[in-house]
Q: What sequence folds into this?
């Protein structure tokens, strides 16, 4: 082995380890400080406690925010996925004029600065006479979820054998029946992925929720509000830890489900693969 | 066999832009017939099959099934069912659910539905596999499930798109026999698409040979094999010795020619025969030339020299050079009299039946 190669072989694992540490260390600090007795996040820990967690359910504002996040997340995920199914199906099944331009436009919000989109949306919604509420937040979230939803669904639809739908028609089934009995079940893994990804994006989003929420506060906006008070930091850490654990459990369960479904339907790909 | 028409293909063309995947095809298929569409890949077989199924629409021309014009009738309302080349087994359903897929819409009731599924699975020798997952099947089993799923619908016409091409040789030959038996048992009209000439010859009542979107010949396997209308058909169906000839006399039914090597021959005039000038081509299959082992000279024989010999177990292929012929003759001979021991350079006599020499268009 040449010298540069040997150096590389020795250093690559170290580099990878450092990278992973950099990626996960801050996240690991969250649960550690959330069980710290003192309110300031500093080493050494002064003692272990669960009091910050115990305090959480006793905060009505937080419960409200969690409830709001859930409503917005579920609605946005469902809406974005329904829209995504239509778009992905159109893109994978039909060839039409202006299709490429259309693909580009649908995907554009992925790379557009979210704050610009949020402000534009704010102007549009206000001039349309809508008052800011969870509804407007949901609309904003649908907008940012749809590109992700579509890309997840397109990858799911692309491996789909056209002749399955033709076989269904050949066996007497209508177009709607074919969609219900063949297309939809075959698409289930991709649809679950899409719902999940959209829900996570909505749950995480701060900018849309901040601009379009009015007086209705979602979890990220609540967390941001609490950060101004040093004394509330441990509760925020505890809340953050819970969110972290919840999304990890959710994603793991979904991934297991997706793999099981994929083994059955031979569908490959998916954002979480 | 009943002579009722089941499928009428009338001057059907399918174009993609300037390209004609199917070019003015006209064809009649009888009830209960095992009909094959035979031709090389890309000649338009699948295109025609899909238009019969209603999965594609003809650009022009019309198709009727059992007397009913099919214009505007979608696939799900046609009395046809198809075995797809990829089998298209629904991977999210069990074997039994796959077979019951089309029955569900007929609302037969659980008992009758179950009975028909069981019957169909028995028919294709898959009894008891109802609860097997669709992805846990071998290629041969998938093919049988696809067959059962179509047959259970009791269609008037069963369409099969290269159903055996994905199977290995042994299984394929076994399935050829089974498919033929099955078709005779159920009495349904079968239309088989294949590029394998042996498959078509072995299974069909009649064959349509296709090239480049056109139907070249429609006839029984024997007729197609023995009396191909042109060189292309002759070549596609197996080995053929082409013999150059000069026309000396012709009328509507027959032609008389002077051949290289085979002397003067009078033969049937094929339908599409349109010779350019006085020259014509005759053909004779290699197995219709037989080595003569006795000493008595017969009326119909040619004499030549063995220049090549290839041993194939039960048969031997010989190449025999004939004085006065441009190309050596290919001969297929059984090995019971020692064709496999003929030395190169040996002079042999080849007997033939003059009826085996057929005229064909270029
Ligand atoms: N949707 C299509 N668009 C353009 N060309 C097609 C289409 N479907 C088939 N063709 C062309 O038509 C010809 C016949 O195809 P096909 O019927 O599938 O042939 P085969 O005899 O092998 O079954 C091929 O050259 C194929 O490329
Ligand atoms: Mg084909």
A:
């Amino acid at each position: 082995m040449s010298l540069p190669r040997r150096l590389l072989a020795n250093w690559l694992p170290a580099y990878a380890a450092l990278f992973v540490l950099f990626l996960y260390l801050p996240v690991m600090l969250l649960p550690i400080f959330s069980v710290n007795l003192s309110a300031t996040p500093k080493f050494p820990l002064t003692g272990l406690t669960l009091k910050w967690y115990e305090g959480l359910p006793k905060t009505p504002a937080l419960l409200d925010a969690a409830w709001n996040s859930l409503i917005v997340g579920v609605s946005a995920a469902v809406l974005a996925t329904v829209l995504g199914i239509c778009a992905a199906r159109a893109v994978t099944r039909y060839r039409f004029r202006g299709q490429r331009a259309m693909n580009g436009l649908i995907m554009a919000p992925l790379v557009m600065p979210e704050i610009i989109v949020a402000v534009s949306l704010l102007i549009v919604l206000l001039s349309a006479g809508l008052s800011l509420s969870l509804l407007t937040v949901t609309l904003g979230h649908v907008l940012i979820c749809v590109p992700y939803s579509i890309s997840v669904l397109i990858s799911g639809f692309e491996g789909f054998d056209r002749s399955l739908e033709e076989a269904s028609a050949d066996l007497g089934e209508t177009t709607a029946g074919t969609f219900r009995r063949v297309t939809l079940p075959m698409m289930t893994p991709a649809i679950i992925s899409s719902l999940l990804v959209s829900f996570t994006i909505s749950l995480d989003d701060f900018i849309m929720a901040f601009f379009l929420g009015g007086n209705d506060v979602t979890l990220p906006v609540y967390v941001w509000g609490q950060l101004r008070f040093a004394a509330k930091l441990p509760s925020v850490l505890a809340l953050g830890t819970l969110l972290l654990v919840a999304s990890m459990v959710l994603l793991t369960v979904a991934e297991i489900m997706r793999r099981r479904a994929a083994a059955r339907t031979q569908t490959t790909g998916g954002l979480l693969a | 066999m009943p002579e009722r028409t089941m499928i009428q293909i009338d001057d059907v063309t399918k174009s993609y832009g300037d390209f004609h995947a199917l070019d003015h095809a006209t064809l009649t298929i009888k009830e209960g017939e095992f009909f094959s569409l035979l031709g090389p890949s890309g000649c338009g077989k699948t295109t025609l099959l899909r238009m019969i199924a209603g999965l594609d629409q003809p650009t022009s021309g019309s198709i009727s099934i059992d007397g009913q014009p099919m214009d505007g009738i979608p696939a799900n309302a046609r009395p046809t069912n198809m075995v797809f080349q990829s089998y298209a087994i629904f991977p999210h359903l069990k074997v039994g659910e796959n077979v019951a897929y089309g029955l569900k819409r007929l609302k037969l009731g659980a008992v009758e539905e179950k009975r028909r599924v069981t019957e169909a699975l028995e028919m294709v020798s898959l009894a008891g596999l109802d609860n097997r997952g669709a992805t846990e099947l071998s290629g041969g089993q998938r093919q049988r499930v696809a067959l059962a799923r179509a047959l259970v619908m009791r269609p008037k016409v069963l369409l099969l798109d290269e159903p055996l091409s994905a199977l290995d040789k042994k299984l394929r030959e076994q399935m050829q026999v089974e498919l033929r038996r099955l078709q005779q048992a159920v009495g349904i009209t079968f239309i088989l698409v294949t590029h394998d000439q042996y498959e078509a010859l072995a299974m069909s009542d009649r064959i349509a040979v296709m090239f480049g979107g056109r139907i070249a010949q429609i006839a029984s396997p024997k007729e197609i094999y023995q009396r191909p209308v042109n060189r292309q058909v002759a070549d596609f169906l197996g080995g053929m010795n082409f013999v150059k000839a000069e026309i000396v006399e012709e009328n509507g039914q027959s032609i008389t020619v002077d051949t290289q090597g085979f002397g003067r021959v009078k033969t049937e005039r094929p339908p599409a025969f349109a010779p350019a000038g006085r020259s014509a081509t005759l053909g004779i299959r290699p197995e219709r030339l037989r080595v003569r082992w006795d000493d008595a000279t017969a009326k119909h024989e040619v004499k030549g020299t063995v220049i090549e010999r290839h041993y194939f177990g039960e048969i031997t292929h010989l190449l025999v050079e004939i004085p006065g012929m441009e190309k050596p003759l290919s001969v297929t001979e059984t090995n019971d009299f020692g064709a496999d021991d003929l030395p190169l350079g040996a002079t042999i006599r080849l007997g033939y039946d003059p009826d085996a020499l057929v005229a064909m268009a270029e």
